[in-house]
Protein: Complex 1 LYR protein domain-containing protein
Amino acid sequence: MAAPTKSKVLSLYKQLLKEGNKLTDYNFRMYAIRRTKDAFKGYKNLNDASEIQILIKKATENLEMLKRQALLSQLFGSNKLVIESQAGSK
Structure:
C-alpha cells in the first residue's frame, strides 16, 4: 500500500465534514461533525504509517456509511428544530 499523505488525510477529513453537513436532523448532523473533528484531532500527532493506514481505512468505511445515512436522511427528512431557525436568523 502507498504511504498515507497529508493531502489524502485532509481530503478525507473534508469529505467527512461535507457528508456530515448533509444530514437533515440537527442532532445527528452536529454529532457527525463533532465526532469527525474530535477523531482527527485525537490522532493529529500520530506518526506510525501502519496505524495511519488502518485509521484511513476505518475513516473511509465511516465515510461510506455517512454517505448512505445522509441519503436516507434527505429522503426521510424531518422538520427543523427551534435551535436551527434561531441560528439561521442571526
